[in-house]
Each structure stands twice: as C-alpha cells, then as structure tokens.
Design goal:
19 strands; globular; alpha/beta; 6-stranded parallel sheet; 24 helices
Length: about 575
C-alpha cells in the first residue's frame, strides 16, 4: 500500500519524465502558428522576459522608446499586410500609452492586437494596490473592436485565435488581449499545450454582395450624367487593385482618391480628378464610394462642398451600419470590396456606356488648368524655402522612385503634400488617417521599412515630428532605410506668432528659432543634413535614398509660410468667430 509520501514521490518522478511548457512559450507558439512573426513594443515588467524569449524563438521584436509609437507601428503594419500588427506593452501606464494607437487602429479599420501584461484579477478586483494595478480590460473595451483576457495557460491558443479573427474579419480593427503576470509562468504538459493551440482558418472570409444590390448600383450609375467614384483607404487595404482598376477604366468615370488611396491608380491617370476635387464634388450627380466614408473628410456628404445639385450616393462597404450615416444611400452594396467590385465589373457586361463627353472634358480641363497654375510655384529655389518649392522637389523624387513609401504628417506639410505629391503605386502613401492625428510619423516609418523592405521617405511638420522624434534612435539602432524630412518653420502652422499680452513667454505656437533637428540623428550615428534651398534638399534626399542610411534632413522653411490648421481652420471655433 502506497503512503501519501510515496504517492508524491511517484507523481514527481512521473512529472520529471514529461516535457513541460509554460505560458511564455504557448503565447509565442500561438503567434508563430498564425504567421505573426513581428512584435512592436517596449520592454518592462512583466513582459521583459517574454520579449527575450520571443526573439530567441525567431520572432522579430522591435523595441521602441514609447508605447504609443510602437502601437502606431503595429497599426500600420496591419494596414500594409492585412494581418494583425502586434504591439506588446507593460501594464497600466504602458497599456494606456498603447491604447491611443489601438483606438486609432479601430477608427481607421486597421487590424491590430495590443497585448499587455496586467495585475492579477484577485488583487485588481479587491483594489488592493498591486504594482501598476488597473482593470485594463474594462478600460480597453469601449475603445476597440474586441477585448479578451486569458487566465489559464490551456486557453492561450483560443485567446490568440479569437483576437486574430476579431481583428481581421468584417470591418478590421483593434483588439486588446489582456495577459495577467501569473499566466506567463503557468506550466502544463507540452503535448497538451501544443494540442491547445489554434491555427485560424479563413479569418476574413469573403462577404459576397447580393445580386439585387449590384444591379441597383449599376442602374443608378448608368443613369448618371456626371458620375464620380471616390476611393478610400478601405479600397487600398482590400488589395483588390486589379478589380478596382478594371471597374474605373471600364466605366470611364472620373475618380477621386482619398489620401491613403492615392496610387491605386496613378495620380497621373487620365481619369484621376484629384486636381479637380472641388469641381467634381460640387458638380457630380451620382457618387460611388468604394471603401470611403462620408465623414468630416468629405464634409459629411452635404453642405457647400457638395454644391446645390441633388446627389445620389452608391456606397460599397463591408459594414452595413455605415450606410445612411450622414445622407441617404440610394444603392448600398454590402460585402468585401474585392467581391463587390468584381461583381460590379461582371454586371457591367461588354458594352457599358461612357460618361458624358461634356462631363469628362470639364473635369479634365479643370484638372489640367489647376496643374498648370501650380507648376511654377513648385519650381522655385527660394531660400528660406516655402512649402511649394520644397514639396516640388519631393514630388519629383517620388516620381523617380515610385516604389518608396511616403509617410506624411503635419498641418500645412500634410495638407499641401497630399495635393502636390503624386503617387503611382498602391499603399505607398500612409498618413494621419481618419482622426487627423499627429505623432504617427516615426512609428509608421519603422513599420513600413520592416514590413515592406522598401525605402521610406517621411515628410514631417516640425510640430508633428515632436510627438515621436525620439524614435530616430530606434531607426538608427535597427539601421533602417528611412529618410526623415522635417519642414522646420519654427512653430505650429508658422513661427511668427507673438504673445498678445506682451509678456516674456513666446506664443503657444512658436518653437525655438533656428532649431537643428538634424543634430538629433547625428547623435545616434545617423546622417544629419541642414537644407536651406530646394536644390540642397534634392541632393540630400537623393543621397539618403541611394545610401539607405538613416537620415534626417532639417528643411528650413520660411517662418511666415503656412496658414492656421492648413485647410481645416474652420474646425477651430475662434477661426469661425473671426470670419463672422
């Protein structure tokens, strides 16, 4: 008969013969099983060892200087790859820093998973004051598409699978995965652990539009006298590039790309109405939206931007609730963009009527006139530079290097670059997105270089750069082919504002005069250049793109150049008051 002591000895001996695994390795194995081989994050308690182990197991772990920037990197990785970008943060403050990027990803429909270590449930629920105690799941839920917590090692496979499927299915978005500290060290049988993992099958299944909705949309489009197609970043995310080109060219309809949809067809395409934006929005009678939303970026589909002529809207979107969000959608087409556009092309048959020649000629004439008016301003060699002279240089460089990724943020730097720099390939322009948020620049640049292997040109306002500027050390540390150009006009909007009280403090929008941001890059072993003319800027950017070395160019812009909030000054209540 076995005593309790002998039973314990037998059990211990049996365990010694079993191969064991733990929470650390189960999370790593679950990510690798589903092809998630890159993590963006900031190490610290309780996830430092997890980062080390993930790197040892072949996952690429990119360590940032701030969680928000790591989160932005993960969000744009999701946009570029259609797989969830993964951001790893510590608990409480680190989680909150990453949460801004998670909300940004959800708003922009980018698939992303924020994984954060957290305090134990029994301490959090009794509010006993643990290290960085916070009910992170409750905080995250309202700000993302889905949120899950894993408490037991055997549930890690299911937890990761649910996060992946939630992030990419339907309308993509951000997902929070909460991992309490104890979970990492939980031990279980390795064979059982392996069997508990889940490989996600068909995470984002096609959603086919109804034949009736396709026919209705084509009937409305065919009835148009002045049709317009608007492409949004959802169309770029879909990677249905051939189908979208076929629809536009077969229909003959002018198209207007939103900023991150630029390059789906080249901006120089004869049907592109980017340079005639005001005309086509105001005068069109039927508008087809493909992966674009009638939010503030399109004046909610109403008002003076859209003119007095009545409009009929066709909308293609995977989310049924998006329809009728601001105005009536007479022809909603619900489904994934690839399936919807393919069905529309097929339904058009072989003899689709071309739009009115008067309409297409009007659009072409307006576009050509605006381009011709702009051309001389883009060719100046002023010192200090103005925005147009500097952007004219970058416009030519992108034309010569269409495969490069353009990252863009700022106020005037963003608004003007959006219209001046032509794009030639899809998903080569990434910017502030739906919220118009500042601070995405360095995180986006790092992820774009990592995920695509392409050179990156980041065009930054000096204010926007300040949100993530310390990540130039990260760029240098990983030796990434990123060239950062800072449009430095000594302030926000412009550097000439004065303190209205006459006091000693500078105006709230004014920075240090003559700042040398290029010295920051030099401090970390990168290349720094101070450019004062368009010719100097051209030489510096070309040298950086040729070398692939981390480079920061301080582009000196006239402090008086720029206008408040670029083209959206009307959103500032004081600006509105001044106009009345």
């Amino acid at each position: 008969m076995l005593t309790a002591a002998s039973k314990l000895e037998a059990t211990t001996a049996n365990d010694a013969e079993q191969e064991l695994t733990d929470g650390f390795h189960l999370i790593i194995d679950a990510l690798k099983l589903n092809g998630l081989n890159t993590i963006y994050g900031v190490p610290g308690i309780p996830i430092t060892d997890f980062g080390r182990m993930a790197q040892a197991e072949g996952i690429r772990v990119l360590s940032f200087r701030h969680e928000q920037n790591a989160g932005y990197a993960a969000s744009i990785a999701g946009f570029l790859t259609k797989k969830p970008g993964v951001c790893l943060t510590v608990s409480a403050p680190g989680f909150l820093n990453g949460l801004t990027a998670l909300a940004h990803a959800t708003t922009n429909c980018f698939p992303m998973i924020l994984i954060s270590g957290s305090s134990e449930r029994e301490i959090v629920d009794l509010q006993q004051g643990d290290y960085e105690e916070m009910d992170q799941l409750a905080v995250a839920k309202p700000l993302c598409k889905a949120a899950f917590r894993v408490l037991h090692a055997q549930d890690i496979g299911i937890g990761v699978a649910r996060a992946i499927r939630a992030a990419v299915s339907g309308r993509p978005g951000g997902v929070y995965l909460d991992l309490p500290a104890k979970l990492f060290g939980q031990v279980m049988n390795a064979d059982a652990g392996k069997k508990s993992l889940v490989k996600v099958i068909d995470a984002a299944p096609a959603q086919i539009p109804s034949p009736e909705s396709v026919k209705r949309a084509l009937d409305v489009l065919k009835s148009a006298k002045k049709p317009l197609i608007i492409l949004g970043k959802g169309a770029a995310y879909a990677q249905a590039d051939d189908e979208i080109r076929a629809l536009i060219e077969k229909s003959g309809v002018p198209f207007l790309p939103m900023s991150m949809a630029k390059g789906l067809l080249p901006d120089t395409h004869p049907q592109c109405a980017g340079a005639a934006r005001s005309t086509v929005l105001k005068d069109s009678d039927v508008v087809m939206l493909i992966g674009a939303r009638l939010n503030w970026l399109l004046s909610h589909g109403k008002g003076k931007t859209w003119g007095d002529a009545p409009k009929k809207f066709i909308q293609i979107d995977i989310e049924p609730k998006e329809m009728d969000s601001n105005v009536e959608i007479v022809a909603p087409v619900v489904g994934d963009i690839g399936s919807c556009v393919s069905a529309l092309v097929q339904g058009m048959g072989g003899n689709w009527p071309a739009p009115s020649a008067d309409w297409t000629k009007t659009v072409q004439t307006k576009r050509d006139d605006n381009i011709a008016k702009m051309a001389p301003r883009l060719m100046n060699n002023n010192s200090p530079m103005d925005y147009h002279g500097a952007l004219g240089v970058l416009r030519t460089i992108i034309k010569e290097r269409p495969d490069a990724i353009l990252v863009n943020e700022g106020a005037n730097t963003l608004d003007l670059a959006r219209g001046i720099i032509d794009m030639y390939q899809p998903r080569k322009r990434i910017d502030v997105g739906t919220w118009g948020i500042m601070g995405i620049g360095m995180g986006y640049s790092i992820a774009a270089a990592i995920e695509t292997g392409k050179p990156v040109l980041a065009v930054e306002g000096d204010s926007a750069f300040g949100f993530s500027g310390m990540e130039v050390e990260t760029i240098c540390r990983y030796k990434l082919p990123v060239c950062v150009v800072i449009f430095n006009n000594d302030g926000i909007y412009r550097g000439t504002d004065v303190n209205p009280s006459g006091g000693p403090d500078v105006a709230p929008t004014v920075f240090v005069k003559g700042a040398r941001y290029d010295k920051m890059m030099e401090a970390f072993g990168g290349v720094g250049v101070n450019a004062t003319t368009p010719d100097e800027l051209r030489r510096a950017v070309n040298a950086a793109m040729d070398s692939g070395k981390p480079t920061l160019i301080n582009a000196v812009i006239d402090p008086a150049a720029g206008s408040e909030s670029g083209r959206i000054g009307n959103l500032n209540p004081q600006s509105v008051l001044k106009k009345k």
